Protein backbone atom coordinates (compact mmCIF):
# COMPACT_ATOMS: atom_id res chain seq x y z
CA UNK A 1 0.00 0.00 0.00
CA UNK A 2 1.38 3.35 -1.07
CA UNK A 3 1.19 5.79 1.84
CA UNK A 4 3.05 8.57 0.04
CA UNK A 5 1.23 11.91 0.47
CA UNK A 6 0.82 14.93 -1.81
CA UNK A 7 3.63 17.38 -1.71
CA UNK A 8 3.09 21.08 -1.22
CA UNK A 9 4.26 21.78 -4.75
CA UNK A 10 1.74 19.34 -6.19
CA UNK A 11 -1.02 20.93 -4.12
CA UNK A 12 -0.08 24.41 -5.32
CA UNK A 13 -0.06 23.20 -8.95
CA UNK A 14 -3.54 21.67 -8.54
CA UNK A 15 -4.86 24.87 -6.91
CA UNK A 16 -3.32 26.96 -9.68
CA UNK A 17 -4.92 24.82 -12.39
CA UNK A 18 -8.24 24.86 -10.53
CA UNK A 19 -8.02 28.66 -10.21
CA UNK A 20 -7.36 29.02 -13.93
CA UNK A 21 -10.31 26.76 -14.80
CA UNK A 22 -12.62 28.61 -12.41
CA UNK A 23 -11.48 31.98 -13.80
CA UNK A 24 -12.21 30.80 -17.33
CA UNK A 25 -15.62 29.53 -16.27
CA UNK A 26 -16.36 32.78 -14.45
CA UNK A 27 -15.27 34.86 -17.44
CA UNK A 28 -17.45 32.79 -19.77
CA UNK A 29 -20.35 33.19 -17.36
CA UNK A 30 -19.89 36.98 -17.28
CA UNK A 31 -19.79 37.12 -21.08
CA UNK A 32 -22.97 35.03 -21.35
CA UNK A 33 -24.66 37.05 -18.62
CA UNK A 34 -23.79 40.38 -20.26
CA UNK A 35 -25.03 39.09 -23.59
CA UNK A 36 -28.25 37.86 -22.00
CA UNK A 37 -28.81 41.20 -20.27
CA UNK A 38 -28.09 43.10 -23.50
CA UNK A 39 -30.39 40.88 -25.58
CA UNK A 40 -33.09 41.10 -22.92
CA UNK A 41 -32.82 44.90 -23.00
CA UNK A 42 -33.02 44.90 -26.80
CA UNK A 43 -36.07 42.65 -26.77
CA UNK A 44 -37.80 44.77 -24.15
CA UNK A 45 -37.11 48.05 -25.97
CA UNK A 46 -38.28 46.53 -29.27
CA UNK A 47 -41.53 45.35 -27.71
CA UNK A 48 -42.20 48.74 -26.12
CA UNK A 49 -41.34 50.56 -29.32
CA UNK A 50 -43.52 48.24 -31.39
CA UNK A 51 -46.54 49.40 -29.40
CA UNK A 52 -45.64 53.05 -30.05
CA UNK A 53 -45.09 52.43 -33.76
CA UNK A 54 -48.47 50.72 -34.07
CA UNK A 55 -50.15 53.70 -32.43
CA UNK A 56 -48.45 56.00 -34.93
CA UNK A 57 -49.41 53.75 -37.82
CA UNK A 58 -53.03 53.64 -36.70
CA UNK A 59 -53.23 57.42 -36.31
CA UNK A 60 -51.86 57.98 -39.83
CA UNK A 61 -54.24 55.40 -41.32
CA UNK A 62 -57.22 57.02 -39.59
CA UNK A 63 -56.24 60.63 -40.35
CA UNK A 64 -59.27 62.45 -41.70
CA UNK A 65 -61.82 59.98 -40.33
CA UNK A 66 -64.90 62.00 -39.29
CA UNK A 67 -63.04 65.25 -40.03
CA UNK A 68 -65.40 67.92 -41.42
CA UNK A 69 -64.31 69.52 -44.67
CA UNK A 70 -66.41 72.63 -44.10
CA UNK A 71 -66.99 74.36 -40.75
CA UNK A 72 -69.04 77.55 -40.72
CA UNK A 73 -69.07 78.01 -36.92
CA UNK A 74 -66.17 79.30 -34.85
CA UNK A 75 -64.19 76.90 -32.66
CA UNK A 76 -60.89 76.75 -30.78
CA UNK A 77 -58.08 74.32 -31.49
CA UNK A 78 -54.74 74.13 -29.61
CA UNK A 79 -54.01 76.89 -27.12
CA UNK A 80 -50.69 78.74 -26.84
CA UNK A 81 -47.98 76.90 -24.89
CA UNK A 82 -44.49 78.41 -25.04
CA UNK A 83 -42.77 75.43 -23.39
CA UNK A 84 -42.91 73.63 -26.75
CA UNK A 85 -41.01 74.38 -29.93
CA UNK A 86 -42.85 74.93 -32.16
CA UNK A 87 -45.82 76.19 -30.17
CA UNK A 88 -48.83 73.84 -30.60
CA UNK A 89 -50.97 76.88 -31.50
CA UNK A 90 -48.71 77.52 -34.50
CA UNK A 91 -49.71 74.10 -35.84
CA UNK A 92 -53.45 74.83 -35.87
CA UNK A 93 -55.26 74.49 -39.18
CA UNK A 94 -54.24 77.24 -41.57
CA UNK A 95 -57.89 77.74 -42.51
CA UNK A 96 -60.08 76.89 -39.52
CA UNK A 97 -63.13 76.55 -41.78
CA UNK A 98 -61.38 73.74 -43.70
CA UNK A 99 -59.13 71.81 -41.28
CA UNK A 100 -56.47 69.54 -42.78
CA UNK A 101 -56.06 65.86 -41.97
CA UNK A 102 -52.31 66.55 -41.54
CA UNK A 103 -50.29 69.55 -40.44
CA UNK A 104 -46.52 69.44 -40.45
CA UNK A 105 -43.51 71.36 -39.20
CA UNK A 106 -40.40 70.32 -41.13
CA UNK A 107 -37.16 70.22 -39.09
CA UNK A 108 -38.80 72.46 -36.46
CA UNK A 109 -38.18 70.24 -33.42
CA UNK A 110 -35.02 69.38 -31.47
CA UNK A 111 -32.00 68.50 -33.66
CA UNK A 112 -34.00 69.26 -36.82
CA UNK A 113 -36.65 66.67 -36.01
CA UNK A 114 -40.12 66.91 -37.53
CA UNK A 115 -43.46 67.57 -35.83
CA UNK A 116 -46.50 65.75 -37.20
CA UNK A 117 -50.11 66.76 -36.47
CA UNK A 118 -53.00 64.39 -37.27
CA UNK A 119 -56.70 65.26 -37.13
CA UNK A 120 -59.60 62.82 -37.01
CA UNK A 121 -62.55 62.08 -34.77
CA UNK A 122 -60.69 59.04 -33.36
CA UNK A 123 -57.32 60.69 -32.63
CA UNK A 124 -58.24 60.75 -28.93
CA UNK A 125 -58.16 57.17 -27.68
CA UNK A 126 -61.11 56.97 -25.32
CA UNK A 127 -64.48 55.24 -24.94
CA UNK A 128 -66.30 58.14 -26.62
CA UNK A 129 -64.46 58.35 -29.94
CA UNK A 130 -65.11 54.69 -30.75
CA UNK A 131 -68.76 55.58 -31.28
CA UNK A 132 -69.91 56.68 -34.69
CA UNK A 133 -72.86 56.04 -36.96
CA UNK A 134 -75.75 57.83 -38.64
CA UNK A 135 -79.22 59.09 -37.85
CA UNK A 136 -82.16 58.36 -40.12
CA UNK A 137 -85.94 58.76 -40.13
CA UNK A 138 -88.19 55.73 -40.64
CA UNK A 139 -91.59 55.61 -42.37
CA UNK A 140 -93.31 56.50 -39.09
CA UNK A 141 -91.35 59.76 -38.79
CA UNK A 142 -89.29 58.33 -35.94
CA UNK A 143 -85.60 59.23 -35.68
CA UNK A 144 -83.13 56.40 -35.09
CA UNK A 145 -79.40 56.17 -34.51
CA UNK A 146 -77.64 53.35 -36.37
CA UNK A 147 -74.34 52.51 -34.68
CA UNK A 148 -71.43 51.61 -36.96
CA UNK A 149 -68.85 51.73 -34.18
CA UNK A 150 -68.97 51.29 -30.42
CA UNK A 151 -71.05 49.13 -28.13
CA UNK A 152 -74.34 50.96 -28.66
CA UNK A 153 -74.33 52.78 -25.31
CA UNK A 154 -74.20 56.45 -26.29
CA UNK A 155 -75.08 58.11 -22.97
CA UNK A 156 -73.16 61.33 -22.20
CA UNK A 157 -71.39 61.40 -25.56
CA UNK A 158 -71.08 64.60 -27.55
CA UNK A 159 -71.31 63.87 -31.26
CA UNK A 160 -70.23 66.04 -34.17
CA UNK A 161 -73.02 66.03 -36.76
CA UNK A 162 -71.80 66.06 -40.38
CA UNK A 163 -73.56 66.07 -43.73
CA UNK A 164 -72.23 63.06 -45.70
CA UNK A 165 -72.57 64.67 -49.13
CA UNK A 166 -70.09 67.49 -48.45
CA UNK A 167 -68.74 66.68 -44.94
CA UNK A 168 -70.09 69.95 -43.57
CA UNK A 169 -70.15 70.25 -39.78
CA UNK A 170 -73.56 71.26 -38.45
CA UNK A 171 -73.58 71.10 -34.64
CA UNK A 172 -72.78 69.12 -31.51
CA UNK A 173 -75.50 66.92 -30.06
CA UNK A 174 -76.03 64.31 -27.37
CA UNK A 175 -78.37 61.33 -27.54
CA UNK A 176 -81.16 63.35 -25.92
CA UNK A 177 -81.09 65.80 -28.86
CA UNK A 178 -81.49 63.24 -31.65
CA UNK A 179 -85.27 63.40 -31.88
CA UNK A 180 -85.62 67.16 -31.47
CA UNK A 181 -82.72 69.02 -33.04
CA UNK A 182 -81.60 66.48 -35.64
CA UNK A 183 -84.80 65.38 -37.30
CA UNK A 184 -83.48 64.52 -40.76
CA UNK A 185 -86.64 65.08 -42.76
CA UNK A 186 -85.64 62.28 -45.10
CA UNK A 187 -81.88 63.01 -44.91
CA UNK A 188 -79.12 61.01 -43.29
CA UNK A 189 -76.58 62.67 -41.02
CA UNK A 190 -73.26 61.19 -39.91
CA UNK A 191 -72.49 61.24 -36.19
CA UNK A 192 -68.94 61.02 -34.80
CA UNK A 193 -68.24 60.72 -31.06
CA UNK A 194 -65.85 63.43 -29.85
CA UNK A 195 -65.86 63.71 -26.04
CA UNK A 196 -68.03 63.53 -22.92
CA UNK A 197 -68.12 67.31 -22.49
CA UNK A 198 -69.03 70.10 -24.85
CA UNK A 199 -66.06 70.01 -27.26
CA UNK A 200 -63.95 73.00 -28.21
CA UNK A 201 -63.37 71.59 -31.73
CA UNK A 202 -65.48 69.24 -33.88
CA UNK A 203 -62.65 66.72 -34.22
CA UNK A 204 -59.73 65.40 -32.19
CA UNK A 205 -56.05 66.07 -32.75
CA UNK A 206 -52.83 64.26 -31.91
CA UNK A 207 -49.26 65.62 -32.19
CA UNK A 208 -46.05 63.58 -32.58
CA UNK A 209 -42.73 65.20 -31.63
CA UNK A 210 -39.40 64.71 -29.84
CA UNK A 211 -38.80 66.20 -26.40
CA UNK A 212 -36.88 65.50 -23.22
CA UNK A 213 -38.97 64.99 -20.07
CA UNK A 214 -38.73 67.67 -17.40
CA UNK A 215 -37.46 65.08 -14.91
CA UNK A 216 -34.75 63.87 -17.29
CA UNK A 217 -34.28 61.02 -19.73
CA UNK A 218 -34.27 57.37 -18.58
CA UNK A 219 -30.81 56.47 -17.26
CA UNK A 220 -30.31 53.75 -19.85
CA UNK A 221 -30.61 56.23 -22.75
CA UNK A 222 -27.53 57.49 -24.58
CA UNK A 223 -26.53 61.16 -24.48
CA UNK A 224 -28.40 63.58 -26.76
CA UNK A 225 -31.46 61.37 -27.18
CA UNK A 226 -35.14 62.22 -26.74
CA UNK A 227 -38.53 60.70 -26.05
CA UNK A 228 -40.99 60.42 -28.93
CA UNK A 229 -44.25 61.82 -27.59
CA UNK A 230 -47.84 61.28 -28.64
CA UNK A 231 -49.95 64.18 -27.35
CA UNK A 232 -53.68 64.68 -27.79
CA UNK A 233 -55.08 68.20 -27.61
CA UNK A 234 -57.50 68.28 -24.68
CA UNK A 235 -61.01 69.32 -25.57
CA UNK A 236 -61.33 71.01 -22.17
CA UNK A 237 -58.56 73.60 -22.45
CA UNK A 238 -56.64 73.12 -25.70
CA UNK A 239 -53.45 71.97 -23.92
CA UNK A 240 -51.41 68.90 -24.76
CA UNK A 241 -52.05 65.67 -22.88
CA UNK A 242 -48.75 64.01 -23.70
CA UNK A 243 -47.49 60.47 -23.34
CA UNK A 244 -44.01 59.13 -24.25
CA UNK A 245 -44.33 56.17 -26.61
CA UNK A 246 -40.68 55.53 -27.56
CA UNK A 247 -37.54 55.92 -25.43
CA UNK A 248 -34.03 56.90 -26.48
CA UNK A 249 -34.95 58.30 -29.92
CA UNK A 250 -32.39 60.42 -31.75
CA UNK A 251 -34.12 61.11 -35.10
CA UNK A 252 -37.74 61.52 -36.26
CA UNK A 253 -38.41 62.42 -39.89
CA UNK A 254 -41.54 62.24 -42.09
CA UNK A 255 -41.96 62.17 -45.87
CA UNK A 256 -45.18 62.49 -47.89
CA UNK A 257 -45.84 60.71 -51.18
CA UNK A 258 -47.87 62.97 -53.49
CA UNK A 259 -49.82 62.37 -56.67
CA UNK A 260 -49.37 65.68 -58.49
CA UNK A 261 -51.08 64.80 -61.77
CA UNK A 262 -54.11 62.81 -60.54
CA UNK A 263 -53.03 59.57 -62.20
CA UNK A 264 -53.27 57.58 -58.97
CA UNK A 265 -49.52 57.02 -58.53
CA UNK A 266 -46.92 58.82 -56.43
CA UNK A 267 -45.00 61.43 -58.43
CA UNK A 268 -43.02 63.15 -55.69
CA UNK A 269 -41.81 62.71 -52.12
CA UNK A 270 -42.21 65.95 -50.22
CA UNK A 271 -41.56 67.57 -46.85
CA UNK A 272 -45.20 68.74 -46.89
CA UNK A 273 -48.46 66.74 -47.12
CA UNK A 274 -49.44 68.63 -50.29
CA UNK A 275 -47.76 70.46 -53.15
CA UNK A 276 -47.28 73.87 -51.56
CA UNK A 277 -46.13 75.36 -54.86
CA UNK A 278 -49.75 75.26 -56.03
CA UNK A 279 -51.63 78.45 -55.19
CA UNK A 280 -54.77 77.06 -53.60
CA UNK A 281 -56.31 78.26 -50.35
CA UNK A 282 -58.04 74.94 -49.70
CA UNK A 283 -55.14 72.96 -48.24
CA UNK A 284 -57.53 70.33 -46.91
CA UNK A 285 -58.69 69.60 -50.45
CA UNK A 286 -55.11 69.52 -51.77
CA UNK A 287 -54.19 66.90 -49.17
CA UNK A 288 -57.23 64.76 -49.97
CA UNK A 289 -56.45 64.86 -53.69
CA UNK A 290 -52.65 64.47 -53.55
CA UNK A 291 -51.51 62.54 -50.49
CA UNK A 292 -51.12 58.81 -51.15
CA UNK A 293 -48.56 57.56 -48.65
CA UNK A 294 -46.64 58.61 -45.56
CA UNK A 295 -43.18 57.35 -44.62
CA UNK A 296 -41.76 57.83 -41.13
CA UNK A 297 -38.08 57.29 -40.32
CA UNK A 298 -37.05 56.84 -36.67
CA UNK A 299 -33.58 56.13 -35.28
CA UNK A 300 -33.56 54.81 -31.74
CA UNK A 301 -31.31 53.01 -29.27
CA UNK A 302 -31.48 49.25 -28.73
CA UNK A 303 -30.66 47.93 -25.28
CA UNK A 304 -28.23 49.51 -22.84
CA UNK A 305 -24.70 50.86 -22.99
CA UNK A 306 -22.01 48.28 -23.74
CA UNK A 307 -18.48 49.58 -23.00
CA UNK A 308 -16.97 46.67 -24.94
CA UNK A 309 -18.98 47.47 -28.07
CA UNK A 310 -18.34 50.15 -30.70
CA UNK A 311 -21.02 51.14 -33.22
CA UNK A 312 -19.32 52.16 -36.48
CA UNK A 313 -22.30 52.65 -38.80
CA UNK A 314 -24.14 55.73 -40.01
CA UNK A 315 -27.79 56.11 -41.00
CA UNK A 316 -29.29 58.10 -43.83
CA UNK A 317 -32.98 58.60 -43.17
CA UNK A 318 -34.26 57.59 -46.58
CA UNK A 319 -35.12 54.62 -48.77
CA UNK A 320 -34.89 53.89 -52.50
CA UNK A 321 -37.70 56.34 -53.33
CA UNK A 322 -37.14 59.31 -51.02
CA UNK A 323 -34.39 61.89 -50.67
CA UNK A 324 -32.28 61.96 -47.53
CA UNK A 325 -34.24 63.71 -44.77
CA UNK A 326 -31.43 63.62 -42.23
CA UNK A 327 -28.36 61.63 -41.19
CA UNK A 328 -27.12 60.15 -37.95
CA UNK A 329 -23.58 59.14 -37.04
CA UNK A 330 -22.94 58.23 -33.37
CA UNK A 331 -20.24 60.33 -31.73
CA UNK A 332 -18.48 60.16 -28.39
CA UNK A 333 -20.20 57.96 -25.84
CA UNK A 334 -23.02 57.22 -28.31
CA UNK A 335 -20.69 54.75 -30.05
CA UNK A 336 -21.04 52.34 -27.13
CA UNK A 337 -24.76 51.89 -27.81
CA UNK A 338 -26.55 49.88 -30.49
CA UNK A 339 -28.75 51.88 -32.86
CA UNK A 340 -31.54 50.90 -35.20
CA UNK A 341 -33.44 52.74 -37.91
CA UNK A 342 -37.06 51.76 -38.54
CA UNK A 343 -39.13 52.86 -41.53
CA UNK A 344 -42.90 53.02 -41.22
CA UNK A 345 -44.80 53.03 -44.53
CA UNK A 346 -48.50 53.89 -44.18
CA UNK A 347 -51.32 54.56 -46.62
CA UNK A 348 -53.87 57.03 -45.18
CA UNK A 349 -57.22 55.30 -45.56
CA UNK A 350 -59.68 58.02 -44.58
CA UNK A 351 -58.82 61.28 -46.33
CA UNK A 352 -61.19 60.68 -49.25
CA UNK A 353 -64.94 60.12 -49.24
CA UNK A 354 -65.91 56.54 -49.89
CA UNK A 355 -69.49 55.62 -50.64
CA UNK A 356 -71.05 53.49 -47.94
CA UNK A 357 -74.16 51.38 -47.95
CA UNK A 358 -75.89 52.89 -44.91
CA UNK A 359 -78.28 50.09 -44.06
Describe this entry's structure for a reader.
Strands 2, 3, 9, 10, 11, 12, 13 and 16 form an 8-stranded antiparallel sheet that branches. The protein has a 6-stranded mixed sheet with strand order 1-7-6-8-4-5. Strands 14-15 form a two-stranded antiparallel ribbon. A hairpin with a 5-residue loop joins strand 4 and strand 5. The chain has 3 helices and 16 strands. With 359 residues, the protein is α+β, with helices and mostly antiparallel strands. The longest helix has 55 residues.
Topology (SSEs and partners):
Blueprint: H1 8-62, E1 70-71, E2 102-105, E3 115-120, E4 132-137, E5 143-149, E6 158-163, E7 168-173, H2 178-181, E8 189-195, E9 204-211, E10 226-233, E11 240-258, E12 268-270, H3 283-290, E13 291-302, E14 315-316, E15 327-328, E16 338-346
Summarize the structure.
By secondary structure, this protein is α+β, with helices and mostly antiparallel strands. The protein contains three helices and 16 strands.
Question: Can you give the mean pLDDT?
Answer: 87
Oligomerization category of the chains in this entry = single chain
Number of helices: 3
Structural class: alpha+beta
Order of helices and strands: HEEEEEEEHEEEEEHEEEE
Shape: elongated
Number of DSSP-assigned strands: 16
* Main pleated sheet: 8 strands, antiparallel
Q: Helicity level, as a percent range?
A: 10-25%
Proportion in β-strands? 25-35%
Unreliable stretches (pLDDT < 50, length at least 5) are 354-359
